Amino acid sequence: MKYCILIMDGAAGWPLTKYDNKTSLQLAHTPNLDTLAKQGVVGLAHTVPPGMEPSSACACMAIMGYAPDVYYSGRGPIEAKSMGIQITPADVVFRCNLVALRHGKMWSYNCGSIGDEDAHPLIQALQDGIKDRSVHFYPGVGYRHICKITGQPSTLKSICTPPHDISGKLVRGFLPHGIGSVFLKNLMSSSEPILKNHPVNMARQSRGEIPATMIWPFWGGKQCQDLPPFYDLYGIHAAITSGVDLLRGLAKLSSIEVLDIPGVTAGPDTNYVVQTDGALQALDKYDLVIIHIESPDEAGHNGSVEEKVHAIQEIDREVVGRLLSTRKKGFRMLIMPDHPTPIDIKTHVSDPVPFILWGDGLKGNGAEAYSEIEASRTGFIIQQGHLIMDMLVNGVGVIK
After folding, report:
1. Tens-digit pLDDT profile for residues 248-289
2. CATH architecture designation of domain 2-73+225-394
3. Theoretical Cys-Cys bridge with 240: which of 146, 170, 251, 262, CB 3.0 to 4.6 Å?
4. 185-203 pLDDT, tens per residue?
5. pLDDT of 61-79, one tens digit each?
C-alpha cells in the first residue's frame, strides 16, 4: 500500500458575509476534491488540543501522527532544526519575522512577501550591526528567520504576539511584555536604525515595494528533543515536500526524509506541478509522502478571498487532479488543512478542519462535496487529530 497526505495549509475558514455566507472552500471550483469527498470518508478533525496555540506547528504535528500536547515544546527550535542550527541548553530560539510598521501600525507582517534575495542581506546586516554577541540571526525563507539568544533564559517567559495576528493594528499594545520582555523590546528597537537606510530597503521603496522596518520575535522555545521515529510508530517509510522550514524541521525531528524539489516555495509562486510529480516519483521509494502547500494560508493572512480561492483551485487542478489520475489501486490519501485561517481575522483559529480519507478499503459516508459544511453534516468528528494517521495507515475506525 502507498499513501499520500496533502496538507492545504490554512485552506479552511469561516462563512463570508459578502459572499452569500460561503467559505473559501465552498467558493472554489474543486471538482477533484468533490469527487474524492463523494467516494471517501469525510469528517472534521480537531488538530489543535484545547488550550494550545492554533499554529501550524501544533496542527501539522497532529496530522503527522504526533500528539502536540505530548511532544510540542516551541516552534522556533523546530524551524532551527530544519536549518541545521546548533542549539545548546543555554539558548532560547525565536522565530523572527522581518515586518513593516507605518504610523505605529502593523503595515505588513511579511514586508509584502519579501523574497530571499532581499531578506538575506538584511538579516546579515542585523547580525553585523547588533553588537550584542549573545544574539545570532539566521536567514530562513522569505520573511521567516531565526533569532538565537544565549544566556537570556528569561526571554522565554516573555508574552509575544505573532505579527500576522495584528495586521493593521497599533503595535504598542502587542509588543513583548512580562518577564524577559525588556531584552526583546530593546532588540527590536535596535533593528530599526540598521534597517532604515539599508540599500535593500532603499531599493525596495524606489520600486514601490514595502520595506522591512523592524524585526519581530515570537514563538520562542528551547532545545527540543527528537520525536519517536515515524517508522517505529507506523511501520512505513515516509518523505515530505514543503517550502517552509517548520515542516522540514518536523520531518527531521521524526526521521522523515525531506525531499529537495526545485520550484517548491512558501508562496503563491510555488510550482504545484513539479511538487506533485516529485512526490509521486518519491512513492517509488517511500511508502508515504506528505505534500505541504502554504499558499492558502498566506492568502488568508493577507485577507484576500480571491487569492485564497485561486490557491485552492490551483491545488485541486494541479495537485489533487494528478494524484487522482495517477494512483488507482493500492493507494490511500488523506487531504486536509492543518487549521482554518479565516479571511475576516487574517489569522489562525483552533476550529476543527474538514478532511477526506480516500482509497483502498474506504467507502463514502454521505458527503456531496468538500467543504466545512459537508464535513459537519457527516457527523464524523475526530476529537484527537493525531489519531487520523492511524486511520490512514491501518484503517482504524474507518474500515469495517
Report:
1. 999 999 999 999 999 999 889 999 999 999 999 999 999 999
2. 3-Layer(aba) Sandwich (3.40)
3. 251
4. 999 999 999 999 999 999 9
5. 999 999 999 999 888 999 9
